[in-house]
Design brief:
Helix content: 25-40%
CATH architecture of the largest domain: Alpha-Beta Barrel
Number of strands: 21
CATH superfamily of the largest domain: Alanine racemase
Strand content: 25-35%
Structural class: alpha/beta
CATH class of the largest domain: Alpha Beta
Number of helices: 10
Shape: globular
Largest sheet: 10 strands, mixed
Radius of gyration: 22 Å
Distance between the termini: 31 Å
Length: 381
Amino acid sequence: MEFGETEFNGTEFNKTEFNIETPAVVVDMEKLRRNIKEMQDIADRYGCNLRPHIKTHKIPLIAKLQLEAGAVGITCAKISEAEVMADAGIDDIFIAYPIIGESKIKRASKLNKWIKLTAGVDSIEGARALAREGVESGKPFRVRLEVDTGLKRTGVPYEKAVDVAKELSSMKGIELCGIFTFKSLNLGKGTTGDREAAGLEEGKLMKGLAEKMRAEGLNIEEISGGSTPTGQFAAMSGGLTEIRPGTYVFYDMMGVKLGAVDMDRCAAAVLVTVVSVPEPGRAIIDGGSKTFATDFALNSPPYFFEGYASVVGNDDLVLERVNEEHGMLKSKAGKTGLKVGDKLLLIPNHICTTVNLHDFVYLKDGDRLEKVDVSARGKLY
């Protein structure tokens, strides 16, 4: 991989003397490669395929690093994301989201003729629409049935999954090849912080369901699940053929709070500049809600975040408020010690939605930076 000639001052990721305009996302490639390798090693250890979700980085170059490390393909949520990745030469894509609407189905059909595409379905209506297009196009869709295992989002109810799968298997124009779920940190009927118990339960539930479907003569080759918090344990369960973590490539403060990683394992951080110090205990940075994700409420379960991001190397500062262009840092001790022009690195609470706010990121590799477009950002359709 070739990197550009843009240089910066400082040799470590925790140094902030970058010669780039802020706010900006900076990715430490050494940490990123380590994260990619470790998750791949986990999947390999338990004989499980790895199909990472690209929603975290949305960058073909990083997806290709994951594939080069051993991933069997990638996961996307939207057709437009899949189109970006296919245009970049990635030819095995799972769309883990219902494809609803004639125009989206036509675009999926075009991709289906071009690459190995697998579509997620969670309703008879959605499956029928795909099946009609599969017949008309002459190229059936490979489909996986999504099953709700406790999150109460998309997915057919667990107890109805066998009957739905039977109906799907009878449709011309689609070929049922597996089942998938996104369980996240759910255990039994509630949320949990026990990543191991949640992952093991997920594997057990999905394996049991697959066995019931196979007993009915259904072709269930692929059993997919597992997210970043639970992926290791879902793979360990022996119940899945594939895991689909996403955040692991960078990690963020959610992972730190859950005990999945230490803060120094986070590969992506936001570089900001102090633009105002109105009083000793308060400083204003140039990153606000247009820079940092705000999709988790502060001081609320399960994370109880104090602020919207954490300052690298400084536990005293809290990013307690954000407007579009302003981030308000408060010193818990009453004195920030900052001056106008100072630069800081902050690890976001949620890196996936933070990256989606940025047109590009900087990849730091040794003593060089490469500016790379976030090609699949903002893909809503």
